[in-house]
Specification:
Distance between the termini: 23 Å
Helix content: 55-70%
Number of strands: 0
């Protein structure tokens, strides 16, 4: 089944869930065992988490970790439309 969420949607969800739980990027990073810069890169869209980290983030924040890998990349959409 095709998912219509974009990476931007997923990033917004992560931030929303993290903020709703009152967690800073540093606190989330500590909970999943990564450096804060990893969370920053995920939240600004410059990196995607590994499967292991996606599972941990999903568990801590309460959403299905597979959304990281099912989301349509905005750039991929542009490339498909023009290529």
């Amino acid at each position: 089944m095709h998912n219509n969420n974009t990476i931007s949607d997923v990033i917004a969800l992560i931030k929303e869930k993290r903020n709703a739980k009152g967690l800073t990027q540093e606190q989330l990073a500590m909970l999943i065992g990564v450096d804060r810069t990893t969370i920053t890169k995920i939240e600004n869209g410059s990196a995607r988490p590994s499967v292991d980290n996606a599972k941990k983030i999903g568990k801590v924040l309460g959403f299905d970790w597979t959304i990281f890998f099912e989301a349509d990349d905005d750039e991929d959409k542009k490339n498909c439309a023009t290529g």
